[in-house]
Amino acid sequence: MKQASLSIDGLREVVRQLPANGLAPLREAALAHLDENGLPTLRDEDWKYTDLSPLIDISNRWLSAGGQQRPPALPADTIATITSSIDANWLVICNGTIDENSVAAVRRDGIEISRFSEAPSPFVKSKPLADLNAALLQDGLRIRVTGSIEKPVGILIVDRAGDSAAVAQSCVEIAVASGVSAEFIEYHASEGNADHYANTVLSIAVGDGADVKHVRIQNRSIRHVQTGRTSVALGRDARLRMASYDLGGSLIRNDIDIDLGEPGADVAFDGLYLAGDGQHIDNHTRVDHHVGPATSSQEYRGILNGNCRCVWNGKAIVHKGADGTDASQANHNLLLSDKAEIDTKPELEIYADEVKCSHGTTVGQLDETALFYLRTRGLDKRHAIQVLTHAFAADIVQRAPVAGVKDAITAIVEDRLAELIEADAAADLLS
Amino acid sequence: MLEIDNLESRIGDSEILRGLSLSVKAGEVHAIMGPNGSGKSTLAQVIAGHEDYEVTGGTVTYNGHDLLDLAPEERAREGIFLGFQYPVEIPGVNNAYLLKAAVNAKRKHQGLGEVDAFEFLKLAREKMATLGMDPKFLNRGVNEGFSGGEKKRNEILQMAMLEPSLAILDETDSGLDIDALKAVAAGVNALRSPERAIILVTHYQRLLDYVEPDFVHVLSQGRIVRSGDKSLALELEEKGYEWVREAANA
Fold this sequence. Notes:
Chain A is an alpha/beta fold.
């Protein structure tokens, strides 16, 4: 089946109606670049498992209805639930609109926050979904951490679906100055029944010798669609610890690009995805080792139940001259249903001589022997399955680099696993 | 307590138990011995409720109820404990969590409230001390990276915490050095009481030097071919199992 195409004419109309805040030339340039290239299709190697039709359909319906970006009333309960469970100073972006009050509350010594519109950057050619983001962006946030800060900076991207299909863009640039340590929590949530598509672009620049910890939690409504691109660059002797948790969403695509252009950089990033009936979660990661010595390691784990599909594609490119590179990639999957599908692919491209690289992927089912063992200790089958699936996820939860967020992640992972096991699709699991 | 009558069981296409009968009363310790492949472990697995073993004939009643009707977890909560020959490693599941979940599952079944966390830890540490286990094992993954001896001690710890009415220990003595064997035996002896029964499945007589059985049964080709008191174990030790096979074929 041919993928529908995005209405560029509709997009042009809507882009022209956006507030004239200095970003207009950038929007026009992004739109032109998107028009030239189009959105990826299943024929593109990087997109062959992920059909963008659902988000194109939502976008076209939204565009034809006028592409309203009216700032809604904030979903106060959802925000309160999240911000009270995780101790951080929270910036809030709701339906693509930056909440001014939150910006004022987070600004303090050591953190500079500004809007893109205050000092627009020149247009840089990017990937199609990032172009779409730039074309429709109301405004973006720049966060620069220059000194020690007491609490993590929280970035809450929350969407409220109204009565009809809608689209929201958000863009955040993070920079951490040389030698500074900082923690970030990126949280994606949504509510409401109408179709919704959120598209986010995030960049993290870790300065020389800086130490950054970043946790990303995606706990959107199971009905909603999200795509996101995270671009990371590490300076000399910089260190980054990152972990990503995907629990919600009907169609989720995450692209993470990590650029190691200075010696001594050290990045470790992990991910956990939990998918049930009707979900499609795709993680594409890419690490470019330009120089050595530098270290990158990643481990993604997935638990799938029911009629769902997940994709993991981890690419590491060790460029010529990047001697002293140490790169490892792992992806492990637990399939609880024969209707679940995982497409997993590590990719290593090595053009340097002195390197240490490893990769491994596994796909397995619940260990029947362990299940029986737990039952002989009095745990019922449901409890035993819960214990085993939780154990599979536990390493990644425990590795959340921001200590204060572990309890919140444990709680939402437990809730989601319980839902997955209870779901009708798991009936045969419990029979 | 346990009445097994003419039990037949198979796994896949192979018949393993072929008309096994055994009666175990409260307060008794039974040793089940026999050559490899005679059906000792199958008997233990069938009593615990392993679903891969199909019961094709006979009955098993436990405290007057049909045991074969119950799911493995129901059997456990009714007081049956199986000590595994090969305890399963479950990385990511904390040993203390499993112990507590197991104790609470049984308490809930008995209509009791959940165990007090402080009391539970205190009791677990006491039992571990008597088994010669380092308390740090409480915070490790279940059997994760444990040596053979540590795994078997961990089984005995679970048994001690669960205080079963009927404990079946499947080759708990295999692969143990003398210290571990003594610790395990002490754990088993501590559980002996007029209300409890213990079935020791073992290949060797060695464990029986430390845990004295009331009855010894010899299993061959899926049935009990001879029963006696503890002297039978000594006789087996002396003569080997060859004569048992001959007796079974006769």
